[in-house]
């Protein structure tokens, strides 16, 4: 187990948690692609008793997944950063958004889910030209 801390981009919402590093996953579902504006989302589950909001209160949005599951999406009402998702009916586990965590570099994904929706060019990403910062 790893103690982590995180916040939204504007720092209005801050939290801490204890996560199992072996349960980090990449989700390629089209909902995650649309909601992040990115090709995938990285998630780590955390039990409700191992998650603590330290500051702020997220706004929520109820998403109905392709499977019919009803998922509460929690995000910052100011900057829009996604914090976690949980089931509408069983809020015992939160899917924390790894990008909001200070320790994101050590949370290496161990599996990919909804891979049927993965963008076909992802396996070529290492061959794309790289810049250390925004090129001029």
Short note summarizing the structure:
This protein has one helix and ten strands.
Order of helical and strand elements:
EEEHEEEEEEE
Overall average residue pLDDT: 96
- The global form is globular
Task: Output the CATH topology.
Answer: Metal Binding Protein, Guanine Nucleotide Exchange Factor, Chain A
Key words describing this protein structure:
136 residues, mainly beta, Metal Binding Protein, Guanine Nucleotide Exchange Factor, Chain A, 7-stranded mixed sheet, 3-stranded antiparallel sheet
Question: What report would you give on this structure?
Answer:
With 136 residues, the protein is mainly beta. The chain has a single domain, classed as Metal Binding Protein, Guanine Nucleotide Exchange Factor, Chain A, CATH 2.170.150. The chain is 5% helix and 39% strand. It has one helix and ten strands. The strands form two sheets. It has a seven-stranded mixed beta sheet with strand order 6-7-8-9-4-3-10. The chain has a three-stranded antiparallel beta sheet with strand order 1-2-5, with no helix packed on it. Strand 7 (70-75) and strand 8 (82-87) form a beta hairpin. The longest helix has 7 residues, at 30-36. The protein is globular and about 40 Å long.
